[in-house]
Amino acid sequence: MRLGVIADVHGNLPALEAVLASLAGLSVDRIVNLGDCASGPLWPAETMRLLRATPMSHVRGNHDRALGAASPDGLGASDSYAWRNLDAEARGWLAGLPFELTIGGARCVHASPKDDDTYLLDAIEDGRLVAATPAAVEALIGPAHPAVILCGHSHQPRLLRLDDGRVVVNPGSVGNPAYHATEPSIHVSESGAPDARFAIVEIADAVTVEHHAIAYDWEHAARRAEANGRADWAHALRTGQVLTSR
């Protein structure tokens, strides 16, 4: 099984278009989307239409779950923008996605098997995301999971091979290369580059992982963020770095 793995599109339509065009030439058997599809000040409705029109499997991200709220009151700025730009049917579709799937021997979750808001391959140190220890990852996934675990959420491309042979992969973010978060504590995630990220995971006698970073028109996306009053997103889209960390 050769899987194309995407995550954390966050409404970035041109990044998603570029990733899907690249995947079309890479002979994948199936595409899996690990969630957080629309939240952000970009193109939530257009992104949703493309995701739903493209054959792939989906799991629900924490922001997808948040968009199932009855109103945008109390949502963060990115979720609120997406909520207001999606119709009720699209919001319900996102909120109704499964928490996890098993595809071709791979367990697919948004964040971790524990919940959709706990980092699996990352830890917070000095206000930044760093690679989690193998022991911490093993504690979250437990002993009885498939040979491959796919996760997103942190926007950090990562690969960990555990001593028992299991492989844990985060493809990185298609559409949001850096962000500032306040939960579970204040921290930043920075990929260091504006490229759109995805992975190819081939599951056979051995597990082979390819991380891809591809160029797209991130200036177009940054201008869209600026037009919607989000200078923080515009800076992240252009640089892969968080504005407030400088």
UniProtKB/TrEMBL annotation:
It comes from the Bacteria. Residues 1-182 form the Calcineurin-like phosphoesterase domain. Pfam families: Metallophos_2. Belongs to the metallophosphoesterase superfamily. YfcE family. This is Metallophosphoesterase family protein. It comes from Bosea rubneri.
